[in-house]
Amino acid sequence: MKIRIRPSALSFSVRSFSTTFPRRSTSLPPVSTPPNAGITNLNSTRRLILLQGPDVPKFLQGITTINVPNITGNKGVYCAFLNSKGRVLFDTFLYPAAHSSLIPSSADPAFIIEADVASTPSLLTHLKRYKLRSKFTIRALEPEKFTLWATWNTLSSLPASIPKSDLGLIDQRAPNFGRRLILPQGSRPEVDADEVDGEVYRLRRYLNGIPEGQAEIIGGSALPQESCMDYMGGIDFRKGCYVGQELTIRTHHTGVVRKRILPVMLYPSSAERPQKLDYTPGLEIPELTTGADIKRVNRKGRSAGKFLARVGNVGLGLCRLEVMTDVKLSDGMEGGWKEEDEFRVERNEEDAAEEIRIKAFVPSWHMLGNTTASQNAPVSNTPLSLGGL
């Protein structure tokens, strides 16, 4: 049966709440709104690992979700390492690096893995576990010698490729999201943009619904499709055998993904329910526990999702699609979504003087595969465009 797909709106803006909800202390300035063009140094949150030797492509082919032989030239990709049960261990970027003057010269294949700084020791152990007698070397690159940059520009189109001499990639996790570049320490991308703080970049990810790192794609627990890795281009379903493939491919062909990580907006119970994703600089939101349950307001029942992370009043949550959104799953089962429903983040009783409510939003680029939006979904007249080079 042919699935009808109708894009769901995900537009966002910056505004001020008219509410008595307490605002952020002036001693802690609010995170700035992401600029139209910017660059961010990612060295504080990401690390690089170099694999170099004749057996590297074959080795990576057996333990990643991407089809390594399809990586040509300097076209880096987003991918993941899974455990044998199909759970995500590490979300990563993979950069072909044999062409680069930044690494030791060799005729052998070379790849750089970019991973969350918190997971780097575990990833090194994982790589060495599967290496066995394969002929290649593994070493972590010193952050004192290299700088990883994210760059974007919403006002100009992104080139279809990066220069052949560059070590980097186009970040395709969301449409026109930007690029990543690995440069020698002390060098900056040659773009017309100001450098912004890592929190601004993180906010930009959340506004686009992009999870990243162990705090958001929880190692050993998260599933690749629930983490939207299929939508973000991190899984090649035509690929042959690799660690964790069985559950991943079975879910793709025969299963239904009922939960996904979505952008969410937090707001006080005294405020009106938001209709679009709005970042409100300076709005104070009490501390929330990662993994806290999301429940319907004034109704009992199973959890509707899990709160993951936030910058200010915008963040990410693992949401039951048929409960928190009007998305209809391909199996036709009704999940109980009602337009008037509101949701709250569970908090400890001693912290619960002010109820924190939460609303999920479905990015238009999610509307692929096994989901379709209802006819009542609002449709934005302005296409989402968040950056190129």
UniProtKB/TrEMBL annotation:
Coiled coil: none
UniProt-annotated location(s): Mitochondrion matrix
Keyword Ribonucleoprotein included in the entry's annotation: no
Keywords associated with the record: Methyltransferase, Mitochondrion, Transferase, Transit peptide
Domain (CAF17 C-terminal): residue spans on this chain: 258-365
Superkingdom of the source species: Eukaryota
Entry keyword annotation includes Ligase: no
Annotated GO CC locations: mitochondrial matrix
Gene3D superfamilies: Probable tRNA modification gtpase trme, domain 1 (3.30.1360.120)
Listed GO biological process terms: iron-sulfur cluster assembly; methylation
Molecular-function GO terms, alphabetical: methyltransferase activity
Signal peptide limits: none
Pfam families assigned: Beta-barrel_CAF17_C (PF25455)
Designated name of the protein: Iron-sulfur cluster assembly factor IBA57 homolog, mitochondrial
Assigned protein family: Belongs to the GcvT family. CAF17/IBA57 subfamily.
